[in-house]
Amino acid sequence: MGYGDLYLGKTTVLCKDTPAFIANRIGVFSIMSLLHLVEASGLSVEEVDKLTGPVLGRPKSATFRTTDVVGLDTMVHVANGLYANCKDDAAREQFKLPGFISKMVENKWFGDKTGQGFYKKVKGADGKSEILALDLKTLEYKPQVKIKFATLETTKGVDDIRKRMKMLYNGTDKAGEFYKTSFNGLFCYVADRIPEISNELYRIDAAMQAGFGWELGPFETWDAVGIEESIKFIEKSGNKPAPWVYEMLASGNKTFYKTENGIRKCFDLSTKSYLPIPGTSSFIILDNLRESKIIWKNSGCSLFDIGDGVLNLEFRTKMNTIGGEVLEGMNKAIDLAEKDFKGLVIGNDGANFSAGANLAMVFMFAIEQEYEEIDFAIRAFQNANMRVRYSSVPVIVAPHGLTLGGGCEMSMHADSVQAAAETYIGMVEFGVGLIPGGGGSKEFALRLSDSIRDGDIELNLLKERFLTIATAKVSTSAQEAFDLGIFRKGIDNISMNRSRLIADSKAVVIDLSDAGYTKPLQRKDIRVLGRTGLGMVYAGANTMYSGHYMSAHDKLISEKLGYVMCGGDLSAPANVSEQYLLDLEREAFLSLCGEKKTLERIQSILTTGKPLRN
């Protein structure tokens, strides 16, 4: 388990040797009980998948799409095995196949492997593909319909998964009744499985999170809904959870989990007390510190004291986009770190590190032709990133998941990056008609300069760096980011286990501080190629345009990027300062904000989520 944690970045759950172990025992029960509920309530395939997907913090494939991907025959095989081998299970009848499932098995409608299951892809009369949904009553395929429930509408904009769970459970419409029935059945089932499949309830949650991709495990969900409140509904339906749940509540313990002094603890049945979850002492989970360790916050970020003289700055905006509140947080964090701490970590526990700068704000200012506001915002972001680079204490950035645009630029200015293995990082501004404006274009020019050795063909190195930005390359892993020149070998590091990311980053801060960290000097020796490089960029862009491989606007953006990376229209290669390149970068960014086709691209991303090639 230790090896899997440290070197494979995997969650290993210790379980007893029982049928289907933990995840499949609970997961298949959840699916099978849902199938029986669907048969009784008449819910459609689309309705169930709408109700059991991302709104519950679960995969987009939800229930029926997941079954199609895994294979209905596989799910049926596990269900039959559980029915045969779990004869003392009080919920054993739930593992019997509903009539429509038996019919699908007879028809060999197993899902993707047979071309049809709960969904079927067909081609319409116009030649376009369409995905049909199975009508569970007639077993005929029909076009999907858009699903809306009042309960789901009330949770829009509620990012806190625990608050959302409570709202869903307390819904008063058809969706609310669905959640009450399905949750109550799940709560009773997992309570009954202790100590059969595990002595510790946190292992059941960990198995469902790792095995089925649930953001909250069953007991965490029960805590979010409210144990005492849910028991009232459970008893109304004629059921009761396991006796140990009543005993726990009677002893004054009202939740399965609680956090004390930054340590998350779980109720232990054998000692009737809360014990720290084993193996988590080396993790720093910001949610566990939220009540006691926040020393400053604004609407977009929070600053934590994570111990041993280290601060952590967490973003909490939508998709962790970078706007004025985040820039304020960056400057405040560095101010405090320089005054009273060893250093700073910039990291968070969100699904993604950052989707980049706040495009909606840029679009709004550009439409209103408020170019001075855009100039101020870009300058503020450049200055914040330069403070990350030139602070008097070490600053470590801990990217994970999507780390795009401004998030990538921030990472590139850190003293060291501590990246999760699954980090998808890149500067994607080209796709919205812009160039990196927060120091990313400058940084690639600087790194190009540092990589040049005697005898190198400089134009080839320029081409490689230029194309990384011009083709909006995004790494498919943290390891690939080294190949793209976004991470630096010997300086930046990877954490295989995402849960260790902030703790590993903190260790790097301490190491740098204890080694006698000194503030770097701003660079004034960046070699740029001037017209020598510009000639290649302009010729290449013109060739691509003439061959219809790029649009006129793509050509313009390419020339703007080349102009920055080559240091402008210099007659010969020369050494320039970082500030010189930052000024060129900002001017190019501003000029592109005034282009109609850039605004069209930004609008397309904001409204449809899809890039526009115009």
Structure description:
Among the domains are: 2-238, N-(1-d-carboxylethyl)-l-norvaline Dehydrogenase, domain 2, CATH 1.10.1040.50; 288-428 and 474-520, 2-enoyl-CoA Hydratase, Chain A, domain 1. The chain is built from 26 helices and 17 strands. It has a seven-stranded mixed beta sheet, with helices on both faces. Strands 1-2-3 form a three-stranded antiparallel beta sheet. A three-stranded antiparallel beta sheet has the order 4-5-6, with no helix packed on it. The protein is globular and about 85 Å long. The two termini are 52 Å apart.
Summarize the model shown.
By secondary structure, the protein is of the alpha/beta class. Helix content is 48%, strand content 12%. The chain is globular and about 85 Å long.
Distance between the termini: 52 Å
Helices, by number, come to 26
**Based on DSSP secondary structure assignment, what is the total number of beta strands?**
17
Largest sheet: 7 strands, mixed
